[in-house]
Write a structure and sequence with these properties.
The chain is α+β, with helices and mostly antiparallel strands. It has one domain: NADH Oxidase (3-Layer(aba) Sandwich). Helices cover 34% and strands 16% of the residues. The protein contains eight helices and four strands; from the N terminus they run ααβααβαβαβαα. Strands 1-2-4-3 form a four-stranded antiparallel β-sheet. The longest helix has 18 residues. The model has no long low-confidence stretch (mean pLDDT 90).
Protein backbone atom coordinates (compact mmCIF):
# COMPACT_ATOMS: atom_id res chain seq x y z
CA UNK A 1 0.00 0.00 0.00
CA UNK A 2 1.27 3.40 -0.97
CA UNK A 3 0.72 6.28 1.45
CA UNK A 4 0.61 9.55 -0.45
CA UNK A 5 2.71 11.68 1.88
CA UNK A 6 2.67 15.36 0.93
CA UNK A 7 5.89 16.81 -0.45
CA UNK A 8 6.14 20.15 1.36
CA UNK A 9 8.60 23.03 1.03
CA UNK A 10 8.65 23.79 4.74
CA UNK A 11 8.73 21.73 7.92
CA UNK A 12 5.02 20.82 8.00
CA UNK A 13 4.06 18.34 10.74
CA UNK A 14 4.25 14.70 9.62
CA UNK A 15 0.64 14.05 10.64
CA UNK A 16 -0.58 16.77 8.27
CA UNK A 17 1.61 15.40 5.46
CA UNK A 18 0.21 11.91 6.08
CA UNK A 19 -3.51 12.80 5.91
CA UNK A 20 -5.08 12.38 2.47
CA UNK A 21 -8.45 11.45 1.00
CA UNK A 22 -8.04 7.78 0.23
CA UNK A 23 -10.55 5.72 -1.78
CA UNK A 24 -9.17 2.21 -1.32
CA UNK A 25 -10.26 0.76 2.00
CA UNK A 26 -9.39 -2.56 3.62
CA UNK A 27 -12.00 -5.06 4.84
CA UNK A 28 -10.54 -4.58 8.34
CA UNK A 29 -13.17 -2.84 10.46
CA UNK A 30 -12.71 -0.07 13.01
CA UNK A 31 -13.76 -0.85 16.55
CA UNK A 32 -16.42 1.22 18.28
CA UNK A 33 -13.70 2.46 20.67
CA UNK A 34 -11.65 3.72 17.72
CA UNK A 35 -14.68 5.52 16.29
CA UNK A 36 -15.35 7.13 19.67
CA UNK A 37 -11.73 8.29 19.89
CA UNK A 38 -11.94 9.86 16.42
CA UNK A 39 -15.25 11.55 17.27
CA UNK A 40 -13.91 12.85 20.59
CA UNK A 41 -11.00 14.45 18.77
CA UNK A 42 -13.55 16.39 16.73
CA UNK A 43 -15.10 17.77 19.92
CA UNK A 44 -11.83 19.56 20.65
CA UNK A 45 -11.91 21.70 17.51
CA UNK A 46 -12.12 25.45 17.94
CA UNK A 47 -15.59 26.95 17.62
CA UNK A 48 -17.20 30.36 17.89
CA UNK A 49 -18.30 31.00 21.50
CA UNK A 50 -17.43 27.32 22.21
CA UNK A 51 -20.79 26.50 20.65
CA UNK A 52 -19.54 23.26 19.03
CA UNK A 53 -22.31 23.40 16.42
CA UNK A 54 -21.65 19.96 14.97
CA UNK A 55 -23.29 16.59 15.09
CA UNK A 56 -22.33 13.30 13.48
CA UNK A 57 -24.61 10.49 12.45
CA UNK A 58 -22.55 7.36 11.84
CA UNK A 59 -22.94 3.71 10.95
CA UNK A 60 -20.59 0.75 10.77
CA UNK A 61 -20.21 -1.28 7.58
CA UNK A 62 -22.46 -4.33 7.53
CA UNK A 63 -25.38 -2.55 9.21
CA UNK A 64 -28.67 -1.26 7.83
CA UNK A 65 -27.60 2.26 8.85
CA UNK A 66 -24.50 2.02 6.67
CA UNK A 67 -26.59 0.80 3.73
CA UNK A 68 -29.07 3.65 4.21
CA UNK A 69 -26.26 6.22 4.25
CA UNK A 70 -24.54 4.60 1.29
CA UNK A 71 -27.76 4.78 -0.74
CA UNK A 72 -27.75 8.59 -0.32
CA UNK A 73 -24.38 9.00 -2.05
CA UNK A 74 -24.17 9.93 -5.72
CA UNK A 75 -23.43 6.95 -7.94
CA UNK A 76 -19.87 8.16 -8.60
CA UNK A 77 -19.04 7.83 -4.90
CA UNK A 78 -20.76 4.50 -4.24
CA UNK A 79 -18.28 1.99 -5.76
CA UNK A 80 -15.30 2.92 -3.58
CA UNK A 81 -17.05 4.16 -0.42
CA UNK A 82 -18.84 0.83 0.01
CA UNK A 83 -15.54 -0.63 1.30
CA UNK A 84 -15.17 1.90 4.11
CA UNK A 85 -15.52 0.75 7.70
CA UNK A 86 -17.67 3.70 8.81
CA UNK A 87 -19.89 6.23 7.07
CA UNK A 88 -20.75 9.52 8.76
CA UNK A 89 -23.01 12.44 8.03
CA UNK A 90 -21.56 15.70 9.24
CA UNK A 91 -24.19 18.25 10.37
CA UNK A 92 -23.83 21.92 11.32
CA UNK A 93 -26.35 23.55 13.67
CA UNK A 94 -27.57 26.76 12.02
CA UNK A 95 -28.37 28.82 15.13
CA UNK A 96 -26.59 29.57 18.39
CA UNK A 97 -28.07 28.07 21.55
CA UNK A 98 -28.02 31.55 23.09
CA UNK A 99 -31.09 33.49 21.89
CA UNK A 100 -31.31 31.34 18.75
CA UNK A 101 -29.36 33.81 16.65
CA UNK A 102 -27.98 32.66 13.28
CA UNK A 103 -24.50 31.19 13.66
CA UNK A 104 -22.74 32.35 10.53
CA UNK A 105 -19.63 30.46 11.70
CA UNK A 106 -21.34 27.05 11.97
CA UNK A 107 -20.06 25.60 8.68
CA UNK A 108 -16.58 26.93 9.39
CA UNK A 109 -16.61 25.34 12.84
CA UNK A 110 -18.00 22.10 11.39
CA UNK A 111 -15.07 22.05 8.95
CA UNK A 112 -12.64 22.55 11.81
CA UNK A 113 -14.18 19.59 13.64
CA UNK A 114 -14.00 17.46 10.48
CA UNK A 115 -10.34 18.34 9.98
CA UNK A 116 -9.51 17.62 13.61
CA UNK A 117 -11.16 14.21 13.57
CA UNK A 118 -9.43 13.36 10.27
CA UNK A 119 -6.05 14.23 11.78
CA UNK A 120 -6.83 11.99 14.76
CA UNK A 121 -7.82 9.23 12.35
CA UNK A 122 -4.56 9.65 10.41
CA UNK A 123 -2.62 9.33 13.66
CA UNK A 124 -4.38 5.97 14.14
CA UNK A 125 -3.55 4.87 10.55
CA UNK A 126 -7.20 5.35 9.62
CA UNK A 127 -7.92 7.25 6.42
CA UNK A 128 -10.93 9.38 5.71
CA UNK A 129 -12.54 10.93 2.67
CA UNK A 130 -15.05 13.76 2.91
CA UNK A 131 -17.80 13.43 0.30
CA UNK A 132 -19.82 16.33 -1.08
CA UNK A 133 -21.55 14.23 -3.76
CA UNK A 134 -24.78 13.07 -2.13
CA UNK A 135 -28.51 13.49 -2.60
CA UNK A 136 -29.44 16.27 -0.18
CA UNK A 137 -33.21 15.73 -0.21
CA UNK A 138 -32.95 11.96 0.13
CA UNK A 139 -30.52 12.33 3.05
CA UNK A 140 -32.80 14.81 4.84
CA UNK A 141 -35.78 12.49 4.44
CA UNK A 142 -33.97 9.19 5.10
CA UNK A 143 -32.56 10.42 8.42
CA UNK A 144 -35.40 12.78 9.39
CA UNK A 145 -33.03 15.76 9.60
CA UNK A 146 -34.69 19.06 10.45
CA UNK A 147 -33.35 21.35 7.69
CA UNK A 148 -34.51 24.43 9.61
CA UNK A 149 -32.11 23.50 12.41
CA UNK A 150 -29.30 21.57 10.69
CA UNK A 151 -27.27 21.87 7.50
CA UNK A 152 -25.59 18.81 6.05
CA UNK A 153 -21.92 19.64 5.50
CA UNK A 154 -20.75 16.36 3.97
CA UNK A 155 -20.49 12.63 4.34
CA UNK A 156 -17.25 11.10 5.62
CA UNK A 157 -16.02 7.58 4.96
CA UNK A 158 -13.37 6.13 7.30
CA UNK A 159 -11.32 2.97 7.01
CA UNK A 160 -7.94 1.33 6.93
CA UNK A 161 -5.93 1.75 3.76
CA UNK A 162 -5.82 -0.99 1.14
CA UNK A 163 -4.02 -1.54 -2.15
CA UNK A 164 -5.08 0.93 -4.86
CA UNK A 165 -4.98 -1.84 -7.47
CA UNK A 166 -8.32 -3.19 -6.24
CA UNK A 167 -10.06 -0.05 -7.55
CA UNK A 168 -11.58 0.26 -11.02
CA UNK A 169 -11.07 3.33 -13.17
CA UNK A 170 -11.38 6.24 -12.82
CA UNK A 171 -10.73 5.66 -9.11
CA UNK A 172 -7.47 3.74 -9.58
CA UNK A 173 -5.83 6.66 -11.40
CA UNK A 174 -7.09 9.13 -8.82
CA UNK A 175 -5.76 7.00 -5.99
CA UNK A 176 -2.30 6.82 -7.57
CA UNK A 177 -2.10 10.45 -8.71
CA UNK A 178 0.45 12.57 -6.83
CA UNK A 179 -0.96 15.02 -4.33
CA UNK A 180 -0.68 18.68 -5.26
CA UNK A 181 -1.61 21.94 -3.61
CA UNK A 182 -1.50 25.59 -4.53
CA UNK A 183 1.65 27.36 -3.41
CA UNK A 184 1.68 29.49 -0.28
CA UNK A 185 2.16 32.58 -2.47
CA UNK A 186 -1.10 31.77 -4.30
CA UNK A 187 -3.16 31.56 -1.11
CA UNK A 188 -1.61 34.35 0.95
CA UNK A 189 -0.71 38.01 0.68
CA UNK A 190 1.61 39.79 3.08
CA UNK A 191 0.27 43.24 3.93
Amino acid sequence: MHIKTANTKTNVHDLIKKRWSARSFSPKQLSEDDVQTILEAGTWAASSMNEQPWKYLYAMNGTKGFDRMHSCLMTGNQPWSNNGSVLMISLAKKNFEYKGRINRHAMHDMGAANSTLLLQAADMDVYGHMIGGFDMQKTLEEFNIDSEKWEIACFIVLGYLDDAEKLDEPFLSREKKARTRRSVSEISTKI
